[in-house]
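Researcher: Next entry in the queue.
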Amino acid sequence: MELKNQWIDGKFILPRLLQWVNLRPEESDRTLLMFAFYTTTSIGLRWVEDSTVALFLNEQGTDPLPWIYILSAAIGIVLVSVYSLLQRILPLRSVVVAIAPCMVVPLVALIVLRWHVSYLAIIAIFVIRLWVDGIYVINDLNTSITANQLFNIREIKRAYPIISSGILIADVISGFSLPLLVEFVKLDQVILVGSLLIVIGSVILWYLTLSYPQAFPEVRQKFIQEAEPRKRRILSGSLRRYALLLFAFFGLLQVIGVFIDFQYLSQLRINFKDTEIAKFLGIFSGTAGLCELAMQWFATSRVLERWGVFITIGILPVLVTILLPIVPPLLGVFPTTEAKSLFWGLVILKFFDDLLRYTFVASGGPLLFQPIPEKIRNHIQTLSGGIAEQIAGLTTGLAILLTIWLTSFFELVHLQYWVLIIETVAIAIICLGLIWLLRSQYVNLLVLSAGRGQLNGAYVDLRTFKLAVVKALGEKSTEADKHSCIELLSQIDPQGATEVLAPLLTKLPPSLQSQSLQVMLNCGANPAFTPYVNVLLEQISETSSPEIFALALRYIWFAQTNPDLRELEEYLHPRHNSLIRATAAALVLRQGTPTQKSVATNTLRRMLTHKIEQERIHGVKALQEVVYLQALRIYIPNLLRDDSLGVRCAVLEMIAATQLEDYYPALIKGLHYKSTRITAMGALVKLENEALPMLLKVATNLHKPEVVRMYAWRTIGQIPTIEAVEKLWWYLDKSQGTTRDHILRTLLKRHQKEGIDSFTDRLIEGKVETYIKEELQLLGEIYAAYVDFQEQTETYATYIGFKSQDIPRNHHSVYNILDICELLQRALLELEIDIKERILLLLKLLYPVDKIQAAAFNLRSASPKNFARGLEILEYTVDLQCKSVLLDTLDKRSPEEKLQSLVEAEVVQYQQMILSDRARSLLRIGNLLSDWCLTCCFYFAQVARIRLTIPQILEALHHPTGLVREAAIAYLYVASHRVLLEVLPQLKDDPHPLIAAQVKELIAKYQD
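Model: Structure for this entry, 1008 residues:
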């Protein structure tokens, strides 16, 4: 019974309660303490506010209300400024804990003054009314800042609705208790009782700051900001615009509230007197609080997660725009007086304003500050959420006074209500526009705050750019910078690069001369620039700069229409540098007479068979420019086996340059070796579409090494043809697992090179979304297997726990099963990570790469705040139909929760299976599993004595990975000796040495 009770308490009731309120166990303690603090403080504030409003309206009426708004706003600005200053000069913990008790002291002093100095009673209640508004501002700001310190951007969506529901609980408790309380205690004494509760709430907050010291640094904010000036400068532009929008938005929301509050209190003063006002306020607060509480606990966090913060906070201005002009007139059709219909209409509007303001807006507001860097977030939140509201209150008070004066002056008092309505609706519409602007900058600022933003290229003015290149090459800067400058010029204006570089040849250092000549040759030799190259030839020596001399020689002869090759014959003499001899021989073979070609061929033959490595390399490179190789082809096989890596790489380049089809297999073979891989890739890319069939054959051959297949896909991605891209997309549709990873990375690199940030094609978007759904379905299978193994092995472990004294430790049916189950579960979770990475790669095809890259970078972070920022970036970037379940899957939830989310979204269907059936189910999708995961499945089937089908076993025996084949053999050894004896002869020549040894040992065993 005790175990049963623990199971109910620990595994059923608490998780179920947390699920109802959309909260997670790791967030519950912080949320509960924040909730207790805010509820206690809010109850006290509600008692103080309602009592003060009743006293004020009874003694002074509604005429001073506009002045109350103006003066309370002025006081609020001062208080918020002081609060902001305190954050800079004091540790945050001291500020958030001490601010509420300090605000209560003047309140108590004013009540005592009201009791003992009768002629100051009216002034005291006026000041109390102002001071209570100031306490509200500081308390809400304090709570919001504290919550932002304790929770990250995703946690706060779930936790803050619960925390902010404290004021709703306060509405219910204080609302229904106040009518009873005023029967026994005077209204001004209720203010003292409320002040005591505010102090108790501060004590709870003090305990909270001690429990979570990491969230409240002891270092003063001023020092933190001074320590990171550069970061603030980087974000200053975007941050300033975003902060101004926040400032305006929160200010206008306050304007809407003040307009409605003024009309509501005016009608309240007309219809009630004295304590009746306090009782009505209490009942109204209690009733509204119950509705707000239900919405806050069971709807707000879910609405925020599903619809996002911007739609959620936009509901208030939308309803104000719709309801404010029509509700009072609609009520006028009922048999009531016009005054009563206006009163109840404003009560309804006030109810909806409070309902949405203290649920959706209160919970969503702090989220808007999350993209702001943590070090300056509190300061901006103080300004936007504090000073902006007070300035708005001051402005609204002046607007109300002006409206009253104008309607009285023009004798239009009867239209005063409609004028105020028009002003309120106009403000609400402006609010909606600000929400749209905020949303447009929200994700960009998140990306910047994640530190992963990237600069995009811009259009270049070629004339200005060329002048800048000339200036940069002439200045005293590093050669690396000048190399980059020439490279950039060749990419941006390849046709005009010669015009810039030719006049500078003699002024550049040798390394830059070589690069410039190569760029000029790539652009095509132009006779107009040969004088510059001739001057360079006269200045350099072939012994000191053979590479530059050879390039200049090639440029001059290529630029001539009918060159005199007799001058080149001199350079074929052995006394010249090998590079110059090879260049001259190649040029003669292209354009010479038969006699000249014979001499050049003999020169190259001697170089190709020379003992010196450099001679052979230069000879092979010269062959790249030779049109016919009939006499020299016989040397290629030996050169491919040459001891020198440089020679072998040069041969691969030559094969591609001369399109020697007989030797194309050598290029594919070059992909298999790390030393020649890069050269082979470059050579295959030069072949373009001609290389596609060979590369696809390697890339799709699962028995080829994984690294070779990966580089084959990369090579296809570098081929600059439409056919290559079409092949990648075609195979992306047919591929699975790691092959899909390789193709995706290849496509993304290709698109990045071509400047494609994301696709807007609906067809491609539909395909990619289908791929994502396929990955989610695979995740569903993984979670289903994990959950089944987890639950059933826990039950099994509990069972054997009672029997362990009778079971030896090495008994395979007990402990080995549990060990293999644990390995299999780990393999499933590792496979989950791979699939998530693949999903992020797919998202990069549809959305800006910098945003998805920033999200992926943060999702890999161990910091909860960074991880939450990554999810938030995805939420406001992705607009797929499966976005909700996708975010749930990427989130740090348990496999059980993720499986439930996938089932609810109808991505997968789940039915619990026994372990044997679940293992067979996994093997049926073995081609989607990782090699290690598939291996663990066979080992589990072995120790658990699970019967598998012959096709499943044979498929594993022919698996390209030796680890899987080894596991399949081990399974057969236990499951079926007959089948094992049949397949052993076929496996004795396995290329994997361990499997060959295993098979040899088994054959010897059975022969004995």
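Model: The chain has three domains: 13-220+233-449, 462-688, 757-912.
Researcher: Noted, moving on.
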